[in-house]
Amino acid sequence: MIERALTYLTRIAGGDAATADKARRQLAAWQAQDARHQAAWMRAERLWAADGAVREALQSYLPKPQAAAPNRRALLRAFAGGGLALGLGSLLRWQEPQALYRLGIQTARREVRSLGLPDGTMLEADAGTRASVAYYRDARELTLTQGQVYLDVRSEPGRPFVARTPWGMVKVVGTAFSVSARAGVMQVQVERGLVRVWGRDASGDGVLVQPGQMVRTAPAGLESVRNVSGGTHEAWRHGWLAFDATPLAEAVAQWNAWSEQPIEMPADPALQAMRVTGSFPAREPARFLAALPGVLPVMVERLAGGGARIVRAARK
Known about the structure:
Layout: H1 2-14, H2 17-33, H3 35-50, H4 52-59, H5 74-79, H6 83-95, E1 101-106, E2 113-116, E3 122-125, E4 130-135, E5 140-152, E6 161-165, E7 168-172, E8 176-182, E9 185-192, E10 195-198, E11 207-209, E12 213-218, E13 221-222, E14 226-227, E15 240-247, H7 248-255, E16 263-264, H8 269-273, E17 275-281, H9 285-295, E18 298-302, E19 308-312
Parallel strand pairs: 5-6, 16-19
Antiparallel strand pairs: 1-4, 2-3, 3-5, 4-5, 5-8, 6-7, 7-10, 8-9, 9-12, 10-11, 12-13, 12-14, 15-17, 18-19
């Protein structure tokens, strides 16, 4: 998987415009197939940035823009069991950046955990969060696969902090912000400082997000940056869940990290388009469910096992 990710990287970075555009499309489709593909892409990026030996070994196989009718399968054939695959295996072993510090983070339902990192950065993990932290000589990285974290990042200009999720990436030097990865969406809200956010393909310059703003990124790409109500980014840290025109599917995903009984919602496009605004005590999902039919055209069905199911209200 890392070899394939590096193949896309060489085509994007060293190919002509047509080759690079095609590789970006193929990469986006490949990443969407499996969460492991996203992890392989992240490792390939670190290898690419860490040492020129990997780049030089791979770029020598790229079709030159002036070459007539290059064989599109040549690079993949070289990887598939040939000398380049063996040589790349050695490079992967020898060139992989060595982490100076690693930490795995896993919180249970209704659990919020505060952690101090070695550089003085403070991290708070929301309920139902799965993440990992790795510090390298020239980079600090958070990988968030599920849930939400708040970070107050200690400034180190020579060692930026990067937060990655399956749906995008955030890069900062020193700032305070929250990032969530739920229901197929990454959401970033900034409390202090500035952050730059990219979508899944990490192409272009991304978007700059300032204090009091937020941005969401989904498989379709980055949405527009918008202003948010004060305090919504930190409500969960104080026992509340706050929503500001939040898609209903994302709100339900957040509630399921706090609710003892599951809240279900069918994959109904009409439900997916609904948005909810309001604040509720995190340990009282029943209050959210009771209020929902009064603000949205939905019904809440009680399930035999004790959970609940949100469905569209029948038309009168």
